[in-house]
Amino acid sequence: MAAAAGDESHLRAALREAFGDSSDSESDVPTGVVTSCGSGVVAGGKQWRWDAASGVRGLWLCDEFLSADEQERLLAAIEREKWFSDAHNQVELTNEDEDSCPLASDLLWREPLFDQLIANRYKPGEGICAHVDLMCFDDGIAIVSLESACVMHFSQAKQGGTACDILNQGDIESTKVPVHLNPGSLVLMSGDARYLWKHEINRKPGAQLWDGRELEQDYRTSVTLRKLMGSPN
């Protein structure tokens, strides 16, 4: 967990670059399949280019968040920790020190930005079924992809009832929104994208198509960062 904690300022700067200093900064995103959001200079002089998937409010993608060297170092750190084995392909780490984690009204300034990390290792052909992340997690979810490229599809969930009901109500008849995830890419989900849209990755043969070609499927590692909801007083 120490390696991930050390990168929090890196992720905080990325979130600020994507969302701005206000939770309403994305309200003027134009329509279209994918909208370029330009690039900006952030901590350490690094630049990130962000794309907003219009039609999925609150969904942002940075194609080249981690350099090849940063990807190698992150994978090496995971390997050193021996998180994965033949029997286990998932690990979850949590910081539950709530007294030192006041949740600010603005996502970008809450402390800590994230307090739960989950890493998954997928074999060729393994993916994730359509789901909305559990409501025990706060708004704002970051997913880093490593190794194999893949396509993540977003489908709108039915609205109505409580937020938890969204998990079990099926999909509205609508077109799925595909997002291509390069190794080293970062997906950010907040607002509608986090609560009202399901996301899935189908890596079965013939399912991973992008630009008219089938993506080569190998091992894929994902690192997801989330914030646990605080306990009620």
UniProtKB/TrEMBL annotation:
GO cellular component, one term: mitochondrial matrix
Domain Fe2OG dioxygenase: start-end pairs: 113-229
GO process annotations (BP): DNA damage response; fatty acid metabolic process
Top-level taxon: Eukaryota
Family matches, as Pfam families: 2OG-FeII_Oxy_2
InterPro entries recorded: AlkB-like, AlkB-like_sf, ALKBH7-like, Oxoglu/Fe-dep_dioxygenase_dom
Family (UniProt): Belongs to the alkB family.
PANTHER family (UniProt xref): ALPHA-KETOGLUTARATE-DEPENDENT DIOXYGENASE ALKB HOMOLOG 7, MITOCHONDRIAL, SPERMATOGENESIS ASSOCIATED 11-RELATED
Full protein name: Fe2OG dioxygenase domain-containing protein
Organism: Eragrostis curvula
